[in-house]
User: Fold this.
Amino acid sequence: MKTLIILCMLFLGNLIYAQNAPSFTIEDLKGVEYTSAEDQSEVKIYLFFGLAEKSSQELLANLNIFAQKYSPEKLNVLAFYSPLEEGNIDDLKKMSEELGLRYSVYLDRGRNLAEKLTYPTLPTTFLLDRAGNIRHIIVGPQKDYYGVVTSYLSHLYGYSSEKEAQNRVAILKASSKLKADTPGQTDVMIKAAEEAKKLVFLVEETPENETTEETTPEEENYLVENETTEETTSEEENYLAENETTEETTSEEENYLAENETTEETTSEEENYLAENETTE
Assistant:
């Protein structure tokens, strides 16, 4: 029973939806407007945060990695400053510059957009598909925020199913809790993690072809033997080399033929002699 309760707790804060987000227009820190209806990115990430939350900077920095990794057409990251109490905008600008954010920070004045999404908790992350449907919600900070977002992106890009994404997140949360829990709770969490691992369907299996390749050392030995036989064929090369030398010696025969030709030329005198004799006769 405790294990079942723990498993249920693992999924809290990581919800799966398929509802359409409201359309809106909002300005960033530089006064540039963004209209959600015009955003055709394949996946969109909305992070609602406030400066009072210590985890906000860490989440903003994590999302910066995704913004650098993917093109705007593939992923559009947007951060919405939506504090419960209005803060200093200059501090917000300074923090954005210090973090070197590659995406825009928008001002959710009066928390109008946060109220439309009916999620007042800060920080909260929304992952949306191209059509603007909210597919995943991450409530509050996460110890492995980057891993959780990566798991959900894998689902939205079609690399894994919804169930597989949930199971991966459950394992991430279980493993992170194991590091901080007391010894008494650790035993329960280990069992919960084991139960979560049973739900994971993405098992990396070795293809049959690869196993057959591993069982082919005999073929490698055969190739090695062939190589040795090829080395022994160097004797054939030596034989050819000797033949070349014999061919060079045949040049003497050519010289001999040349001398014979000269001797044949001298016999032309005999022909002349015979011709003279015929005339005298």
